[in-house]
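User: quick one - fold this with cytidine-5'-monophosphate bound?
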Amino acid sequence: GVSTVIAVDGPAAAGKTSTCLALAEIFGLRYLESGRTYRIIAFEALRREIPVDNAREVTGLCDDLIRESRSAGLLTSERYAPDKLRATPVNVAVSAVAKIADVRQRVTSLIRLWAKSQAQCVIEGRDIGTTIFPTAPVKFYLTATPEVRAMRRVRQERAGSYENVLEDVIRRDEADMSRAVSPLAAAEDAIRIDTSGLTLDQVVSRMSSACLNRG
Ligand code: C5P
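Assistant: Sure. Structure tokens for the protein plus cytidine-5'-monophosphate:
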């Protein structure tokens, strides 16, 4: 069928997941957290002691995981507890995995395949509006200062000390923005929202009015 995608991109901890879940609830959309797939690949690489900067080996692992989980199943797999995928070693490894062109190409195909089977969906990530669905009718780019983002994450998840979380956020942003393939960037036609001074409800209400206007 013809599917409509709402694309939500932005740096780490900018509020993508909480706002997407709220939008999905309001409009009855399926929701996909694309970063989770990169985290699963990084997690499995660490578990199997595959060096995360070895493009050939990590791509081989990616193919194995796709085969084992019957293609799109990897995107929605519930085998992995969220706290495992959000642990520090995975945070450190994930950007290395996500910069491998052959891995991105495979994850991109899986996401497109998944979206085809949805009537309407909201997908969050780094390259959804720029690379994966460049013609999506509604795109958002959420940002906030690194300090605000780190503070929110510390409060929400007890994710470690503020200093460590801030360091992780800054390091991943730099890695994600500077990679050669599909670097993190706002699509030209994305609605940019700086969420630094806004509550979750305020962000969600801006996003939902934009969906009603454009979608
Ligand atoms: O969204 P989340 O913080 O869970 O993403 C984890 C990592 O996965 C990001 O830092 C980025 O390196 C990678 N990612 C990506 N493209 C996406 C989603 C996530 O490169 N569409």
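One thing worth noting: The mean pLDDT is 94.
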